[in-house]
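Next comes this protein.

***
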Amino acid sequence: MKQTLAHAWGGAPATGRLRTAPEDFRVDEVLGFEPDGRGEHAWLLIRKRGANSEDVARALARFAGVARRSVSYSGMKDRHAVTTQWFSVQLPGTADPDWSRLDAECWRVERASRHARKLRTGTHRGNHFTLRVRDVDGDREAVDATLRRVRDAGFPNYFGPQRFGRGGENLRKARALLGDGGPRRRVRGIYLSAARSWLFNRVLDRRLREATWTEALIGDALMLAGTRSVFECRGDETDLAGRIDALDLHVTGPLWGRGRQPLGAGIARQEAAWLADDGDLCAGLEAAGLAAGRRALRAVTTNIDWGWAGDTLELSFTLEAGVFATSLLREIVDCGDETG
């Protein structure tokens, strides 16, 4: 069930190994603001190694003596990595427990503060990555050149293979639950996300193969950089090509669901035609009641830097929340299943 997806810059010019140790894949959540120090929610900055976000959330609930639903976090973080991320624990009328007494082998609380509101999915602004790709074999000058292209022109905003679960298990479950006219029982969000991500990747793949992923076509839904603001391209706008080249505008693809979008009829028909053989997923997502949305086809990285230590490529960069580091990396180095 693995997707064979087009590349933007001709394919990765080298191979390498990613995540030979958790320290080779470091992710630091960029919250974008500070907790205000007051309120009924304890916000905790946690560093973890070899643990997933859900395991930490359950442990925090047990330690604080609250229900699991009282603990939240903004985004999932990789298990096979060293990561920092924020969690919130709702403690109305209750003092903080002594967080330093938490005895966790794989994680620890680095900071604690109070805030008036709970941490919700997608609250954080982005993530900063520090990666090491070991045993790089290939044309080093071509790797550097591709990195410069990614820095200057962006990269395809694919959902990474981790969205689909081990061996595509999340997508298989999504097909079973959403097929035959829609869900017959409540569908977990992870399976809905896998289905939407699969459909989006297919549309992005087609736009890449047709060399239109950064070309505004009449009827396209265009997104303003750094926002979720989307408008329909009617062809009479000023300097669209220049604004796209300047990374100020992005062409978008579908996050499938119900409802109208700022999209021309021709583009809507084209996307539906490309996804015709996944009609069960499209119909199932609509029946599940998800609202249609759009996602930029192109992602942009800020403050990217890289260097070489022997045959190890060292990278650091920041991405907006929801953008996958593996989707950037697959343009540069083929690490097998790690980068799709």
